[in-house]
Design goal:
The complex is a heterodimer of chains A (326) and B (323).
Chain A lengths: L1 E15 L6 E16 L3 E5 L6 H8 L7 E6 L2 E2 L5 H8 L2 E4 L13 H11 L8 H11 L16 H13 L5 E5 L7 H18 L2 E5 L3 H7 L2 E6 L2 E7 H6 L4 H9 L39 H5 L5 E3 L2 E3 L2 H10 L1
Parallel strand pairs in A: 3-8, 3-9, 6-7, 7-8
Antiparallel strand pairs in A: 1-2, 1-4, 4-5, 9-10, 10-12, 11-12
Chain B lengths: L1 E14 L2 E14 L3 E5 L6 H9 L6 E10 L2 E2 L5 H7 L4 E4 L3 H4 L6 H12 L4 H14 L5 H4 L9 H13 L5 E5 L7 H18 L2 E6 L2 H7 L2 E6 L2 E7 H6 L4 H9 L38 H5 L4 E5 L2 E4 L9
Parallel strand pairs in B: 3-8, 3-9, 6-7, 7-8
Antiparallel strand pairs in B: 1-2, 1-4, 4-5, 9-10, 10-12, 11-12
Helix pairs in contact in B: 4-5, 4-7, 5-7, 7-8
The chains are: A alpha/beta (326), B alpha/beta (323).
């Protein structure tokens, strides 16, 4: 069952001149993205900074209004629903942020922080708030006596646990995990990843998991989408994407990641230059300026997204190889 | 003969009569042309060790004890004026965040040339020529025309290259790189690591690489020191660290990382949290989280025990096995 479906989602930010606010340029942060996430499934989203990962996450939560395109939550277009109506649905969508240091209000106790979503969405009657907070804290591996503490009394890993407890307080169906372990130490990272996966099994949660650590993505994801300059260039099974990446960008990304094992030596594909600015997107294939296989056609024509069952890729090179194999 | 030797370094912070032992008896050495990685979690004292070598420990921190031997001289006995001649000239440093370590108001060329003008008696014209050469070497395209550009006109990866150019422009013997690639994307990280490797060949540079990423260690290091709560837990070669880690902390740290070839559903974890420096446990500092803890660990701090060639471990489990 599809929990979330995204159809041709676009988000432009306009850069305006100060004072007169005349539009100077348009940043195409998300430029036509389509995917879906099934119940109990994790879709990993990878890409360099500036590729539009976080913007996509925000659009899915309706923290940003899309310029065009649809976000369907169980078949309903959430961008078309009125604000008042949407508040009832909001509890189905939650988020875990990257930085557990800034995601919690320093002047509120953990109990206050956790009670807020319970009050707003009327999850349990007020008399049971205390019991529910304790239940949630236990669920993420904290104890009842932590409820009266303030965020600064916890370590980074514990704070991230509180962030997760707050996210699952409303019994959501879908959680956007925006780099939830990037700010944590290795030994704590594995604790949080285990917790997230345990909760997923227990509550059949769906995750959009945004991260730049490829080893982490491989571990948690069922499917992986690779983004480059606001577009998905390749998406498919985690196995396929990691073992047989077809898009030159995915190949380069995989080869650039370091392996914690000195015996594995990988052929490194070097990328020329750095990611171009999303203000002036290159013509044709957005990746052609850095691609080692760049052909003439890449500079003129944008490659179509070729879909074979659950797998899709957008590259002229792959189009040829698929055409010849059939 | 080692180029730099740190012996029993203790750097403590005193805050409101409370003593925080950030670095507590750290000893290691770096040979010529060697890359030594200092690995550990946040709060383990990696960066403070580096700052102590540079003589830049932030207040209220103070080096209490120990020796830092460089060129047969103890850097800790040097006056501030003498340290200024060494810092950036013979020992230099690259910081984690290139966005905040460059002066936004000064053209980058001038920032690269500054070290030359201060440390070496050459004219401004020659310094400029040398700086452009160095910028080309670290891979800044069209260096001479970008000499007058400001840091904001460069991307993150390019700024880190400029930082490296600044650090090596005086051809130092030792480069301390404090998490040089943590703030960068994987593709850019790969390029910066390549650049550092090529510099070692070219200049016989020695590098003290501070990182928490064991992937970077596997890629770069010759030798590795694993730090935990201000102490070195294991000091060994890279091959040994990954093939035959001995200290329980090191073993678990390596097991914790999700690996691309590993199919296990549940990741290995180290229970508990890193203890706060104000209440480090008595005895071995890992004893509160260690699964192989024995009675002795809780009372006595284990010494670094040599268990093989170039392999030292701080753990009572290996006591009596030393060679």
């Amino acid at each position: 069952m599809k929990i979330i479906e995204v159809i041709d989602l676009k988000k432009n930010f306009s850069i305006t001149t100060p004072v007169l606010e005349i539009e100077k340029a348009v940043v195409k942060a998300v430029n036509g993205v389509s995917f879906h996430i099934n119940q109990g499934e994790t879709l990993g989203l990878v890409g360099e900074s500036g590729s539009g990962k976080t913007t996509t996450g925000k659009l899915l939560l309706r923290l940003l209004e899309p310029t065009s395109g649809k976000v369907l939550l169980e078949g309903r277009d959430i961008s078309k629903i009125k604000d008042r109506e949407f508040r009832k649905i909001r509890k189905d969508l939650q988020v875990v942020f990257q930085n557990p240091y800034s995601a919690l209000d320093p002047k509120m106790t953990i109990e206050d922080i956790m009670t807020q979503p319970l009050t707003i969405h009327k999850i349990v009657p007020p008399l049971e708030f205390k019991k529910e907070v304790v239940r949630l804290l236990n669920l993420v591996g904290l104890s009842a006596k932590d409820a009266k503490k303030f965020p600064h009394e916890f370590s980074g890993g514990q704070r991230q646990r509180i962030g997760i407890a707050r996210a699952i307080a409303t019994k959501p169906k879908f959680i956007v995990c925006d780099e939830p372990v990037s700010a944590l130490d290795v030994s704590i990272q594995s604790q949080i990843l285990n917790l997230l996966m345990e909760l997923q099994r227990e509550f059949k949660l769906s995750y959009l998991f945004i991260a730049h650590g490829l080893n982490v993505i491989k571990h948690v994801s069922n499917r992986v989408a690779v983004m480059y300059l606001g577009k998905i260039v390749e998406m498919g099974d985690a196995e396929t994407i990691f073992n047989e990446p077809k898009h030159p960008y995915t190949q380069a990304l995989m080869s650039a990641s370091t392996v914690p094992d000195p015996n594995i030596k990988r052929e490194r594909i070097r990328l020329r230059d750095e990611i171009p600015s999303p203000i002036n997107l290159p013509k044709g294939c957005a990746f052609h300026t850095r691609c080692q296989y760049c052909m003439d056609v890449c500079k003129i024509e944008e490659p179509p997204l070729i879909t074979v069952e659950d797998y899709c890729v957008s590259c002229h090179l792959v189009k040829e190889s698929i055409a010849t194999s059939t | 003969m080692s180029l730099l030797e740190v012996k029993g370094l203790k750097t403590y912070f005193t805050i409101e009569n409370e003593v925080i032992p950030a670095v507590d008896g750290v000893s290691f050495s770096i040979d010529e042309g060697e890359i030594v990685a200092l690995v550990g979690e946040s709060g383990s004292g990696k960066s403070i060790t580096a700052m102590s070598i540079m003589g830049l420990v932030p207040k209220p921190g103070k080096v209490m004890e120990g020796e830092i031997i460089f060129n047969n001289e103890n850097l800790l006995h040097k006056k501030e004026k003498e340290m200024c001649k060494i810092r950036g000239n013979e020992v230099s440093m690259v910081y984690q965040n290139p966005m905040s370590s460059l002066n936004p108001m000064i053209p980058i060329g001038n920032q690269v040339a500054e070290a030359l003008i201060i440390h070496q008696k050459i004219s401004k014209y020659e310094a400029k020529k040398e700086a452009i050469k160095m910028m080309e070497l670290v891979g800044i395209p069209d260096a001479s025309s970008r000499y007058k550009d400001y840091p904001s006109q460069f991307s993150g990866g390019m700024r880190q290259r400029i930082m490296i150019a600044m650090a090596i422009v005086c051809q130092p013997k030792i480069l301390i790189a404090d998490e040089p690639t943590t703030a960068l994307d994987v593709t850019i990280q790969a390029e910066i690591l390549e650049l550092l490797k090529s510099l070692i060949k070219e200049y016989k540079l020695s590098i003290l690489l501070i990182t928490h990423d064991l992937g970077v260690v596997a890629e770069m290091a010759d030798r590795v020191c694993v730090m935990y709560c201000g102490k070195i837990m294991e000091d060994t070669t890279k091959a040994n660290l990954f093939r035959n880690p001995l200290n329980p902390y090191t073993r678990r740290l390596i097991k914790c990382i999700p690996r691309a070839d590993d199919k296990a559903d549940i990741l290995y974890t180290i229970g508990g949290n890193v203890p706060h420096p104000s209440d480090f446990p008595k005895g071995c500092r890992f004893s509160t989280r260690c699964e192989e803890v024995i009675e002795r660990c809780k009372g006595e701090t284990p010494p670094l025990i040599a268990v093989g060639e170039k392999h030292q471990v701080r753990c009572w489990l290996y006591h009596g096995e030393e060679e």
